[in-house]
From TrEMBL:
<keyword id="KW-0276">Fatty acid metabolism</keyword>
<dbReference type="GO" id="GO:0016787">
    <property type="term" value="F:hydrolase activity"/>
</dbReference>
<dbReference type="Pfam" id="PF03061">
    <property type="entry name" value="4HBT"/>
</dbReference>
<dbReference type="GO" id="GO:0016020">
    <property type="term" value="C:membrane"/>
</dbReference>
<dbReference type="GO" id="GO:0006631">
    <property type="term" value="P:fatty acid metabolic process"/>
</dbReference>
<dbReference type="InterPro" id="IPR029069">
    <property type="entry name" value="HotDog_dom_sf"/>
</dbReference>
<keyword id="KW-0963">Cytoplasm</keyword>
<keyword id="KW-0053">Apoptosis</keyword>
<dbReference type="InterPro" id="IPR006683">
    <property type="entry name" value="Thioestr_dom"/>
</dbReference>
<keyword id="KW-0378">Hydrolase</keyword>
<protein>
    <recommendedName>
        <fullName>Acyl-coenzyme A thioesterase THEM4</fullName>
        <ecNumber>3.1.2.2</ecNumber>
    </recommendedName>
</protein>
<dbReference type="InterPro" id="IPR052365">
    <property type="entry name" value="THEM4/THEM5_acyl-CoA_thioest"/>
</dbReference>
<dbReference type="GO" id="GO:0005737">
    <property type="term" value="C:cytoplasm"/>
</dbReference>
<comment type="similarity">
    <text>Belongs to the THEM4/THEM5 thioesterase family.</text>
</comment>
<feature type="domain" description="Thioesterase">
    <location>
        <begin position="53"/>
        <end position="126"/>
    </location>
</feature>
<keyword id="KW-0443">Lipid metabolism</keyword>
<keyword id="KW-1003">Cell membrane</keyword>
Length: 139
């Protein structure tokens, strides 16, 4: 499988995206790469991102899924996109201090709208969260 490392410095703005911006001192600094038809990164979160007792806050989980989906469209199209609708299914608690694999991919396209899917997995393959979204590609 061919892997393409992506340059997030090419993104619009000043690199302060909370999800992927390298210049945001409070951000997640997600550094995705393209693997086949998937947008993938690995991340171990510290307790600064927890909700309770070693579990990642649900809003952070949602943010990582959103970044995997919306960020992928930007990387492959060069066009800005916005999340029109997003649904998250929390299947298991997402732990802090464990390596997570976050992946997003295109499910289908219709006009300016793209249906996306994403997931967060533990090293043993357990899926902790799944996301689906409708992303609107901006002209």
């Amino acid at each position: 499988m061919e892997e393409k490392v992506l340059n997030r410095n090419q993104a619009e703005g000043d690199g302060y995206c909370f999800g992927c911006g390298p210049n945001n001192p409070y951000g997640l600094h997600l550094d995705f790469r393209e693997e086949g038809e998937r947008f993938v990164t690995k991340k171990t979160l510290t307790r600064e991102y927890q909700s309770y007792g070693g579990t990642v806050h649900g809003g952070i989980v949602s943010t990582m899924l959103d970044e995997a989906m919306g960020g992928y469209l930007y990387e492959i199209s060069g066009k800005r996109s916005v999340t029109a609708r997003m649904d998250v299914r929390y299947r298991h608690p997402t732990p802090v201090g464990e390596e997570l694999t976050i992946a997003g991919w295109i499910d289908s396209k219709k006009g300016k709208f793209v249906k996306m899917k994403a997931e967060i997995a533990l090293p043993d393959g357990t899926i902790t969260a799944e996301g689906t979204a409708t992303i609107a590609v901006m002209e």
